[in-house]
Amino acid sequence: MKSKRDQIDIIVDMLEVIDEGMGSKSGIMKNANLSNTITEKYINILKNKGLIDYVDGRYVVTEKGKNILQRLRKLRELEVEIAELFNSVSKELS
């Protein structure tokens, strides 16, 4: 298991949290397990890429963001499937 999240992991975690309705900055920080500095950095990235908007005092995932999130969820599923296949093959070969 990875010990440190990369940029994609953080983006997926943030989009998931916001999509689940926890769109306040403190909600994002708490539920995505991020520091204030990292949260600010990635909020700016997500806003600049058009993946989130700030509406009525909360962040919301845009349609573009929902599309990206759907594809990122699929990638995570495939990563798990690949790891399971790799472990299965490794066991058979050892």
TrEMBL record:
<dbReference type="InterPro" id="IPR038723">
    <property type="entry name" value="ArnR1-like_HTH"/>
</dbReference>
<protein>
    <submittedName>
        <fullName>Transcriptional regulator</fullName>
    </submittedName>
</protein>
<dbReference type="InterPro" id="IPR036388">
    <property type="entry name" value="WH-like_DNA-bd_sf"/>
</dbReference>
<feature type="domain" description="ArnR1-like winged helix-turn-helix">
    <location>
        <begin position="4"/>
        <end position="79"/>
    </location>
</feature>
<dbReference type="InterPro" id="IPR036390">
    <property type="entry name" value="WH_DNA-bd_sf"/>
</dbReference>
<dbReference type="Pfam" id="PF14947">
    <property type="entry name" value="HTH_45"/>
</dbReference>
